[in-house]
Amino acid sequence: MANTSKKPLWISHRGHTAHAPENTRAAFFAAVNMGFSALETDLRLTKDGHLVLCHDPTLRRLAGDRRRVNDLTRKEIEGLRLAHGEKFLFFDQFAEQFKDCTWTLDIKPENGKQTISALAAWAEKNNYKKKLVKQAKFLCWRAAHELHLKQGFPGARCYAQRAECWRAGLAVVLKVPFLGDIRPGRTYALPARIGRFFLFQPSVVKIFHQRNARVIAFLPQTASLAQQACMAGFDEILTNGRIISY
Predict the structure, then answer these.
(1) What is the pTM of this model?
(2) pLDDT by residue (tens digit) across 34-72?
(3) For a FRET experiment, which of 14, 22, 136, 180 has its CA 20 to 30 Å from that of 59?
(4) What is the dihedral of CA 109, 236, 29, 140, to 10 degrees?
(5) Is residue 150 assigned to a domain?
């Protein structure tokens, strides 16, 4: 049965973006100052093999630049400015400045294998492999990328991929959980609703927990929904907002 008395792990999605541009130093510092100890970010690879924190494949939305991240060097990206004069943050900077937090690392699918290889090379160079396995959880969008990650980082913890989450969520709300292929030790991301079905409820969480799986509430859009996820017994909550006390 879901343990509704256990407080979930609150994860700040790209930092506190109401305060500063997403995935920037200022956004993450704002999240930490709000009480977050877990930070989510996105990893992409530059042309010259550096890991930069950027969600989109191009810089158009954030910097008004139509070029793709993987067509630019680190130096070129460092020369760009976001809102309020903020700079893009690179993973080596993030790892140093937020080393006391836990991390959720979203490996974007474009050039995902190369991104993972670059992360493994950085970890090897900095004697960080074992620590990264303990400190981070990973989201890979393709099964081949997850396999590659686990070859480079044995014991790495990965979130279930999108298709797995949808299949499991639908199977549970349709009351045929045996069709969901819910696997022990896996963490499944669930939105508040799939169609007309509401998922932030104890009966849904209970089924995942009975199968020794975990659930993360995926971006509840209001404080009320976040609180419902808390009360339902979700293990983790990924949010653009604040931590909800209850």
Answers:
(1) 0.96
(2) 999 999 999 999 999 999 999 999 999 999 999 999 999
(3) 136
(4) -10
(5) yes
Bigger pLDDT: 84 vs 138: 138
- Encode pLDDT of 163-173 as tens digits: 999 999 999 99
On whether residue 232 sits in a domain, the answer given is yes
Q: What tokens does 220 get?
A: 């509840």
Range of the domain at 70: 46-158
Instruction: Say yes or no: 199 and 235 in one domain.
Output: yes
My answer on whether 117 and 184 are in the same domain is: no
Closest CA to 192 of 237, 243, 235: 237
Amino acid at 102: T
Q: Indicate if 190 and 114 belong to the same structural domain.
A: no
pLDDT at residue 4 in the model: 47
For residue 27, being part of any structural domain is answered with no
Please report, for residues 93, 162, 225, 238, 243, the alpha-carbon distance to residue 159 in angstroms, rounded to integers and kept in the order given. 24, 9, 22, 12, 22
d(CA 171, CA 177): 5
Shared-domain flag, residues 206 and 139: no
Mean pLDDT (whole number) for 185-212: 97
